[in-house]
Amino acid sequence: MKINITKRQSFSALFFMAAVLGLTSCQPDDSIVNNGLTNDNVDASFTITPVDGKVNTYKLVAQPKGVMKSLWDTGAGEFVGKMEQEISLPDAGIYTIVHTAIGAGGGKATVSKDLVVATSDPLKGNLVQGSSFTTAADQAKWTVLNLSATGAAFWSFANNSATIHSSGGWAQEGIYQAIDVVKDKEYTIDMKVSSPSGSDETWLEVYAGKSVPQSGVEYKDNKVMGLSTWDGCAKAGFSGMLSVVGCVKNDKTGTVSNVVKFSESGKIYLLIRSGGNTFTKDGITISKVEFRGK
């Protein structure tokens, strides 16, 4: 009789423990809010210092105490950076530098500072005309390469940017302009690219070739960089500089690189071509197109 009582007591205890554990395991993850693990007083302060010997180059230094990750934005979209980040701003202007510091438990804080760049770097000036697409005159610097006979793909200009739209079904369209380059000089190409939604079987490719673009002919001369769902980017929404969010390899280097060099001086064509099978309903937008001496 005593043994039976002991068994019942043991079963009762086990049942009670299981019930408690079950209730605990069913609690949502956010039930530990305000448990003291989240740092709500993250310090995002940082300093900006010119780098000696480098034109229009600056060192951003974030205070590190309690900071696990630094996000920076110099005006072209937020990116994950280092506590000490070197940036180059070739063009004169006023830039708002934004630093977001992330601490324990996801706590975050943001601090911004204005940086005045008095003069442009004469060796790294932007060779692209109408790079901002702001005015009709800017937009006229670009020539549309007609690749969609039905008009299923087309470019539109608004809000200091250009957007490629496509109804899918492999429709595509391009824009380009001529640029004069110097033999054996290295150049970098970049632009801000964005779309709030992703695509499938879609690309945006950037070329810098000597071949003259021809209407109705898919341009393939010297691919430099781009987006490609086959290579793993643009499947979901994105925003940032193409050199950061892009994944297409440079034809010359075989790596993801935005650096180009030419074997002779003369005219080349900077061409942007985009399209796809299941294209984002929001289009892909480009702005701040750059082609600079390195």
Automatic annotation (TrEMBL):
Residues 1-18 form the signal peptide. PROSITE patterns: PROKAR_LIPOPROTEIN (PS51257). Keywords: Signal. It comes from the Bacteria. This is PKD domain-containing protein. It comes from Flavobacterium phragmitis.
